[in-house]
Write a structure and sequence with these properties.
With 243 residues, this protein is α/β, with parallel strands linked by helices. It has two domains: 4-83, Methyltransferase, Methionine Synthase (B12-binding Domains), Chain A, domain 1 (Orthogonal Bundle); 93-212, Rossmann fold (3-Layer(aba) Sandwich), CATH 3.40.50. It has ten helices and five strands, in the order ααααβαβαβαβαβαα. The protein has helices at 4-17, 20-32, 37-57, 63-80, 102-117, 131-141, 156-169, 190-193, 203-212, 236-242, and strands spanning 93-98, 121-126, 145-149, 176-180, 198-200. Helix 3 packs antiparallel against helix 4 (63-80) and helix 6 (131-141) packs across helix 7 (156-169). It starts with a helix and ends with a helix.
C-alpha cells in the first residue's frame, strides 16, 4: 500500500493539470489496494484541497487552476460518499455552514460526509446564508454543535457578529460552536477571540473534538436583572484583520 505522502505527490500533478480520468484512476487504485474511504478523504482529498488553497494564496497557481482542481476533488468526494461506513446513530446533531468560496464549500461538504458516517445527524447549509436565518436554524434544529468552516479574513468580523447574536438570543444555550479551517488555521488563537467554544484544524480533528465535547454551560442570568453590557473591545488579532 502506498504511503499517504507518496499518494498525494502522485495525485497533485494531474489534479493541478485538470486530468480528471487520471485523478479518478489514482483514487480507484488506492481503494483497490485496501485503503478505506475515510482514509482517502483524510489523507488524500483533504490535504490536496489544503495544498491547492495554499498554492493559490501564494500566487503559485491562478484562479482557473484552483477552480479546476477543486471541482475534481469535489466530484471525487461525492463519489466516495457511498463507500463510507454507516455507523450507528449517536443521537447527536451538527449544523455546518461555511464561507462562500468553492474550496470552503468542498471542505465543509467533506466534513458533512464524514460526520454523517460517524453517526451524526448532519444539516449542511453551505455558504451565503444570512445570520438571521442561521439563527433561526439553530433554534429550530437545536444542534449539539454548529460548525463554521473555512472563513476568509474578510469574513471574520461577520462570524464574530453571528456568534454574539446566537449567544445574546440564547435559543440553544448548550450548543457548542466549532471553528475550523480558513484563516483560523493560520492565526493561532483567533477562534477564542471571536468567542467560539471549539476548534479543529482538519476534519479528523473535528470528529475527535466533537465526539469528546460536553454540552456548553449556559450563561446564568438573574431574572429581572438588567442585561450585562459587554464591552465591544476588539481583540488583537480581530483588530488586525479589520484594520
Amino acid at each position: 500500500m502506498m504511503t499517504s505522502e507518496r499518494l498525494l505527490q502522485r495525485f497533485l500533478p494531474p489534479l493541478l493539470a485538470g486530468r480528471r480520468k487520471e485523478c479518478r484512476a489514482i483514487v480507484a487504485e488506492a481503494m483497490a489496494s485496501g485503503t478505506k474511504a475515510v482514509r482517502v478523504y483524510q489523507a488524500l482529498l483533504w490535504p490536496a484541497m489544503e495544498r491547492v488553497a495554499q498554492m493559490y494564496r501564494e500566487d503559485q497557481i491562478n484562479l482557473a487552476t484552483e477552480h479546476m482542481a477543486t471541482r475534481i476533488n469535489r466530484v471525487l468526494a461525492d463519489q466516495l460518499q457511498d463507500h463510507l461506513p454507516a455507523n450507528l446513530s449517536n443521537a447527536k446533531r451538527i449544523l455546518i455552514a461555511c464561507a462562500n468560496g468553492e474550496p470552503e464549500e468542498l471542505g465543509a461538504q467533506m466534513c458533512a460526509y464524514l460526520f454523517e458516517s460517524d453517526g451524526w445527524d448532519v444539516y449542511f447549509v453551505g455558504g451565503g446564508v444570512p445570520n438571521d436565518e442561521l439563527l433561526w436554524l439553530v433554534g429550530q434544529l437545536r444542534p449539539d454543535i454548529f460548525l463554521i468552516f473555512g472563513t476568509q479574513p474578510a469574513g471574520v468580523p461577520g462570524v464574530r457578529k453571528l456568534i454574539d447574536l446566537i449567544r445574546d438570543v440564547g435559543s440553544n444555550p448548550t450548543m457548542n460552536i466549532m471553528i475550523s479551517g480558513g484563516v483560523f488555521n493560520r492565526a493561532e488563537g483567533l477562534w477564542t477571540e471571536i468567542r467560539a467554544d471549539l476548534f479543529a484544524r482538519d476534519v479528523g480533528e473535528a470528529l475527535t473534538v466533537a465526539a469528546n465535547a460536553t454540552p456548553r454551560k449556559p450563561e446564568i442570568r438573574i431574572p429581572g436583572a438588567p442585561k450585562k453590557r459587554r464591552r465591544r473591545r476588539r481583540p488583537p488579532l480581530l483588530a488586525q484583520i479589520e484594520a
